[in-house]
Amino acid sequence: MKTYTASQLKKLFTQLKHLKVFVVGDAMLDNYWIGHIDRISPEAPVPVVSVTQKDTRPGGAANVALNCNALGADVYLFSVIGQDETGKTLITQLKEHQINTEYIITSQERITTSKTRILAKNQQILRIDEEITAELSIKDEHHFIDTCLKAIQIEKPDILIFEDYNKGILKKNVIEKIITHCKHVGVFTAVDPKQTNFLSYQGVDLFKPNLKEVKDALGIAIPDVKVSALKEIHTQLKQALNHKITFITLSEAGVFFQENKISKLLPAHVRQISDVSGAGDTVIAVATLFYVVTKDMELSAEMANLAGGLVCEEVGVIPINKAKLLQEVLIQLQ
Q1: pLDDT (tens digit per residue) in 35-63
Q2: Phi and psi, residue 84, nearest 5°
Q3: pLDDT per residue over 107-159, tens digit each?
Q4: Is 82 within a domain?
Q5: What angle separates helix 6-15 from helix 322-333, to the nearest 10 degrees?
Q6: Both ends of the chain: CA-CA distance in Å?
Q7: Is the dihedral of CA 267, 206, 226, 223 positive or negative?
Q8: Are strands 159-163 and 188-192 parallel, antiparallel or unpaired?
Q9: 244-278 residue pLDDT tens
Q10: Could you give phi then psi for residue 39, rounded to 5 degrees?
């Protein structure tokens, strides 16, 4: 970042608005019931939360879409949701944020995933998940693949981001068909993977797991976060995936990237952490969009590292604030 002037960085932020981005994966609705605790239930030894506020926000792949939109991109979301009120609410909120929803499929066989978090004093007391995690039926799978491939041909996106939350939409065949088509027409692909299909993203351009996901998928132990160990992880992933860029989030240790022979471990910035929910969504969006504009992975990783920390200062899943990120970037130059 130090190699860029303030005017150059400001220009990069404006260039993001020229990008067309497809986000493909598990969209969901995040609900927040916020209140206070002043007694224990007489019915069971559990706290009673007196709810004073309710909030609903798009989550999962929908949050990645919101982050891309917040950066200024033209965004299309691809997912499979249920024919239910939760799905209708999700679509309404996405449209309010100018996310294109015309390619979202509603299925009679599924419900719209929702997560309800109950909070008191900014602490999560309980989370209630309503979901179907079984893989798409053959009927829905074929419909979803056809929808995605046709949209790529019609809309000609610059970027396609897979956001995998292990809810059954991103099946192996779905992943392979979409990546193959993107490679054929020159669309940059990125993924925030999960364990079930972790090694199914063959040939993806940018692969962004977190450290725990890597350790679980490869069956390895990493007692100390060191560049040498992370470079070995990249080698193993490269052998399995034949991808281009490894980008690993390391929680309080920061982020690591490797592209060809260039690699770097970037430390985390000191933050007052309120909630880590959704930080990965922000990181994949910021890293991918800045990389496509700059082809500079170090800068993109620095941007994503800053953005991930910023959203962790807020309670609940929220997208990055573009103006606040630019302000933070300019502070780093001083």
Answers
A1: 999 999 999 999 999 999 999 999 999 99
A2: -140, 175
A3: 999 999 999 999 998 889 999 999 999 999 999 999 999 999 999 999 999 99
A4: yes
A5: 160
A6: 11
A7: positive
A8: parallel
A9: 999 999 988 889 999 999 999 998 876 666 656 67
A10: -160, 165
Q: What single-letter amino acid sits at 255?
A: V
How far, CA to CA in Å, does 294 sit from each of 89, 144, 244?
36, 32, 16
Q: Distance of CA 22 to CAs 113, 176, 177, 275, 287, Å?
A: 20, 16, 15, 27, 15
DSSP 246-269: EEEE-GGG-EEEEETTEEEEEPPP
* CA distances for 1 relative to 4, 153, 286, angstroms: 6, 35, 14
Q: What are the structure tokens assigned to 20, written together?
A: 């067309």
- What is the CATH number for 198? 3.40.1190.20
Name residue, tokens 């790529």: 152
Backbone φ and ψ of 291, nearest 5°: -65, -45
Provide the residue type at 40 as one letter: I
| Side-chain-facing half-sphere of 306: CA atoms under 13 Å | 21
- Give me the amino acid identity at 245: I
Contact criterion met (CB below 8 Å) for 242 and 207: no
**pLDDT-derived band at 223, boundaries 50, 70, 90:** confident
Residue 239: both structure tokens together = 């052998």
Domain count, the chain: 1
Please tell me the distance from the alpha carbon of residue 247 to that of residue 291, in angstroms, as a whole number.
12
Residues identified as active-site: 281
Q: What is the pTM of this model?
A: 0.94
* The two structure tokens encoding residue 119: 């909070």
How far is Cα of residue 122 from the mean position of the Cα atoms in its chain?
23
Model confidence band, residue 333 (pLDDT cutoffs 50, 70, 90): confident
How many whole angstroms separate alpha carbon 274 and alpha carbon 1? 27
Domain with 176, as residue range(s), is: 6-29+58-112+132-333
Q: How far apart are CA 154 and CA 140, in angstroms?
A: 21
The answer to whether residue 100 is domain-embedded is: yes
